[in-house]
Automatic annotation (TrEMBL):
Protein name: MARVEL domain-containing protein
Entry keyword annotation includes Chaperone: no
Keyword line: Membrane, Transmembrane, Transmembrane helix
Taxonomic superkingdom: Eukaryota
Residues annotated as transmembrane: 12-36, 52-72, 79-103, 123-146
Record organism: Blumeria hordei
Amino acid sequence: MDFIDRYKGPVAYFAHAFYRFIQLTLALTVCGLYGMDLSSADQANESLDGRWIYAVVTAGLAVMIALAYLVPLSLRIPFVFVIDTVIFILWIVVFGIFGNIFIKAEVGNDPGWKKTQRMKNSVWVDLANAVSWLISAAGMGIYWATRKRRSLFTGRAIV
């Protein structure tokens, strides 16, 4: 009995679903944090910054993929870890963009200090998103590399 065989069944599915729910929650948090700035810029008739749009689009993709992975049959799709790796790279880019802007930013007595502090906090949510997708990519990669492959028609023979 190997590692994968020990963790099959409903317990594994619920653990997987819970982890994807955490990813979903983190991505929705980013949608809210960056969406506030996009909404206020739109209401002020200012041009929308492409960096914020990129962050919201990345979060939207992560939301859609996390929702798709909540479906029980998503574990049977080959190479799911590749999609997780792509989303991880997108999150690292978001972290790099906003980390470069806000990590060193001073929160002083200026009128926009609340926005600056909120964005400093959102950078760490971006990093948490990136790490969560990296862990899921590694986990799904290990799962697909070590699983027992069954024959196509009967499923009885291990290939």
